[in-house]
Amino acid sequence: MRKFQVITLFPEMTTGVFNNSMMWKAQKDGIVELTTVNLREFGLGSRRQVDDTPYGGGDGMLLMVEPLWKAVEFAKSQDETAKVVLMSPRGQRWRQTKAQEEADDDRGVIFICGRYEGVDERILELVDEQWSIGDFVLTGGELAAMMMIDSIVRLIPGVLGGEKSAEIESFSDGETLEFPQYTRPEEFKGLRVPDVLLSGHHGNIARWRAEQSQMLTKKNTP
Ligand code: SAH
C-alpha cells in the first residue's frame, strides 16, 4: 500500500485533513496509508530540543539536523524505498502534472515540514527532492504537505468515484481550466442553467463545454 509520511513538530495539524472525506475514505479502502512522524520524539536531551539559533547570526530558530535526520531514518525504516521530500519555497513548483506523476508512481513519500526559519542545510544529504507550493512563505511545511498529499491521493485510481472526473478537470492536460457546471434547480433567484445543458444534445453540450473551457483558460491564466 502506498504510504505518505509527514515529519512534523505539529502532528495534530494533519488530523482534520487525514480524517475527513476522500482522504479518510482512501485510507479506509486500503488505498493509502497517511501517517505522521512526530519530530519532537527525536529531539535531543531531556527537553527534546529540536531547534537552535543559526550560526552566523540572524533572527529566529532553525530545525536542527540531528532530530530531523533521526526522524527521516525512522520514516525510511517504515518504508525503505520511499522518496524523501523537503517542503521549501526553494523547491520545484507544485502543479497538477506533478501530482499526476506522483499518483502514477508507487513509491511512498516522506514529507519533511520545516518550521521557524527553516532547517539546517545538512539535512539535504537525505533529501531526494524539494517541493514548493508557490512563491510565498508559510510558517511551516504542514499546509504545503497536506495540499500535495490531497492533490496526489485524489488521483490514485479508486479514490474518486468516477475516474473520468479527474481526467477532464482543470489542468489535467497541464493548462486548461474546467467548464462551468450546474446542478438542480434549473432556476435559482432568476439565475437559469444554460439551455444547452438541459437540451440533452450531447454533441452541442460537448461543444459548449469545450468553448467555455477555452474561453476561461484564456481569460484566467496569465
Ligand atoms: N526562511 C525560509 C522560510 C522558512 S518558512 C526562507 O526564507 O526561504 C518555514 C518552513 O515552511 C520552511 O522550512 C518550509 O518547510 C515551509 N514552507 C514555507 N513556505 C513554503 C512554500 N512556499 N512551499 C513549501 N513549503 C514552504
From TrEMBL:
Alphabetical UniProt keywords: Cytoplasm, Methyltransferase, S-adenosyl-L-methionine, Transferase, tRNA processing
> What does the entry list as the binding residues for S-adenosyl-L-methionine?
G114, I133, G134, D135, F136, V137, L138
**A GO BP term, please?**
tRNA N1-guanine methylation
Cellular compartment(s): Cytoplasm
- Coiled-coil annotation reads none
Q: Name one GO cellular component term.
A: cytosol
Q: Where is the tRNA methyltransferase TRMD/TRM10-type domain?
A: 3-221
Q: Which Pfam families match?
A: tRNA_m1G_MT (PF01746)
Q: Which chemical reaction does it catalyze?
A: guanosine(37) in tRNA + S-adenosyl-L-methionine = N(1)-methylguanosine(37) in tRNA + S-adenosyl-L-homocysteine + H(+)
A GO molecular function annotation here is:
tRNA (guanine(37)-N1)-methyltransferase activity
What enzyme class is recorded for this protein?
transferase
Name the Enzyme Commission number(s) assigned to this protein: 2.1.1.228
The record's note on quaternary structure and interaction partners says: Homodimer.
What family is this?
Belongs to the RNA methyltransferase TrmD family.
Say what the protein does.
Specifically methylates guanosine-37 in various tRNAs.
Which HAMAP family does the record match to this protein?
TrmD (MF_00605)
Name of the molecule in the record: tRNA (guanine-N(1)-)-methyltransferase
Q: Give the originating organism.
A: Candidatus Nanosynbacter lyticus
Lineage of the native species? Bacteria, Candidatus Saccharimonadota, Candidatus Saccharimonadia, Candidatus Nanosynbacterales, Candidatus Nanosynbacteraceae
